[in-house]
Amino acid sequence: MQSAFSKAVDLLSRAEQSALDIRLKLKKKGYDEEEIKAAIDKLYDLHYLSDRRYAESYIRRYSGSKSRSLITRELYMKDIHIDGLDLIFDEVYEYENLNEEKIIRSLLEHNFKNADFTDEKVKKRAISFLIRHGFNYSSATLYLT
């Protein structure tokens, strides 16, 4: 059987991963907790695993479809707790030329093309959709005009 470290490197060769993701995948493959911990520690030591790099990759991937607050919650759920998360968001948003309004308008355009937001049913569906994507009620209603 391949060592936990080799398997983890293989996982990382495909895409950035969080330590939690690697831990869960290795555990599912039957590696014991001690070997998993040693593999993850070695990945961090060799800079193969980086919470900051993972956070940046995650933010880049989801910044066009989710709110900052939802992405932040998801990163915390993946046990990513780093200083400077707001700075990473700011850099990605600047590079991608994004802001909350552009994201909401893009989501509405993509998912509610030609929708009549004067229809209360349609408006409620759109608001619910935006809230599920992490936007607060006031932001969701602000752009439904």
Task: Characterise the protein shown here.
This protein has 145 residues and is mainly α. It is built from 9 helices and no strands. Helix 1 packs across helix 3 (33-45) and helix 2 packs antiparallel against helix 3. The longest helix is centred in the N-terminal third of the chain and has 13 residues, at 33-45. It starts with a helix and ends with a helix. The mean pLDDT is 95.
Strand content: under 5%
Which stretches of 5+ consecutive residues score pLDDT under 50? none
Largest sheet: none
Please provide the ordered H/E string of secondary-structure elements.
HHHHHHHHH
CA-to-CA gap between the ends? 59 Å
Number of helices: 9
Structural class of the helices, strands and pairings? mainly alpha
Mean pLDDT: 95
- How many E-type strands? 0
Proportion of residues in helical segments: 55-70%
